[in-house]
């Protein structure tokens, strides 16, 4: 008997969805940083054993959209409700359970198994956790509630076991040696974007898109040319920094991470270009792959 299914991870920003995904898949599939809105696409990570295939899907945090890019991010999250065999709804010990009732109401109506994961329990105490479990039970009466700490790997083995029990019988959807549905270029742009999120303040990281224009691989090394698109000239100046210092730092850190990720020597060249107001342009968002279709 072979089991296979789609397990989609949803929840509000910053509750630890990407960290959880990385723990479950065992690879650094989703970039996880401390800033909200890190994940902009649905990213699949695939776990294979002889008699099972779990296709995990990490989604952007659910938020009320302020501009076109966020509308498309919300569409990715909502599309995750349509095609799941099991839904993981991630919250944490500090979040107000009623923070996003519109999305919760959609989850309440779902007919598939929902596992409600209360993350970061290492930052809480027994009493607070007990109250939270009760509150969530009243909001999502059909959900199974599991307290976890994704960062400390607490409860994640139990969660994996429960997912296996809930998976339907099915042949595999992807090749058994496949880890993700995304091409190598996608991870290059995500890793560069992660460094930008870490090194620049305020609005800059959210005004940035990274496009890989060249990815040439041989047995020993990979040559990569990437472009960082920003919305305004002033942002271009900030990304490059005085005498190019800031951009150099991002390039160096990205190269180190890419070498670990691909286990090869990396030549990385990064350019910065202005693409005015790309976050509000449907055409540009389509070009950058933000159409959830």
Please give a structural write-up:
The protein has 293 residues and is α/β, with parallel strands linked by helices. Helix content is 36%, strand content 24%. It has nine helices and nine strands. It has helices spanning 17-25, 68-82, 101-108, 126-139, 156-166, 184-199, 233-240, 245-262, 282-287, and strands at residues 3-11, 43-49, 52-58, 86-92, 114-119, 144-147, 209-217, 221-230, 265-274. It has a six-stranded mixed sheet with strand order 2-3-1-4-5-6, sandwiched between helices. A three-stranded mixed sheet has the order 7-8-9. A hairpin with a 3-residue loop joins strand 7 (209-217) and strand 8. Helix 6 (184-199) packs across helix 8 (245-262).
């Amino acid at each position: 008997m072979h089991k296979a299914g789609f397990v989609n991870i949803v929840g509000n920003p910053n509750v630890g969805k990407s960290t959880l995904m990385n723990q479950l898949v065992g690879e650094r599939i989703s970039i996880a940083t401390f800033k909200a809105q890190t994940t902009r696409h649905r990213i699949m990570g695939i776990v294979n054993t002889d008699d099972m295939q779990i296709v995990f899907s990490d989604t952007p945090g659910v938020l009320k959209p302020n501009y076109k890019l966020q509308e498309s991010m919300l569409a990715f999250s909502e599309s995750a409700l349509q095609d799941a065999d099991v839904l993981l709804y991630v919250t944490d010990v500090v979040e107000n359970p009623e923070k996003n009732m519109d999305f919760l109401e959609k989850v309440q109506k779902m007919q598939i198994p929902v596992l409600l994961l209360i993350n970061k329990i290492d930052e809480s105490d027994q009493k607070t956790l007990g109250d939270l479990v009760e509150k969530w039970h009243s909001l999502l009466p059909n959900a199974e509630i599991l307290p976890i700490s994704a960062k400390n790997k607490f409860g994640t083995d139990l969660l994996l076991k429960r997912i296996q029990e809930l998976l339907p019988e099915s042949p595999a959807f992807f090749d058994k040696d496949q880890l993700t549905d995304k091409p190598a270029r996608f991870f290059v742009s995500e890793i560069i974007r992660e460094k930008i999120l870490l090194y620049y303040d305020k609005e800059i990281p959210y005004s940035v898109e990274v496009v890989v224009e060249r990815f040439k691989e041989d047995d020993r090394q990979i040559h990569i040319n990437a472009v960082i698109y920003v919305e305004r000239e002033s942002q271009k100046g900030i990304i490059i920094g005085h005498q190019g210092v800031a951009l150099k730092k991002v390039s160096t850190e990205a190269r180190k991470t890419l070498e670990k990720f691909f286990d090869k020597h990396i030549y990385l060249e990064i350019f910065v270009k202005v693409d005015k107001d790309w976050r509000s342009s449907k055409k540009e968002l389509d070009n950058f792959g933000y159409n959830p279709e």
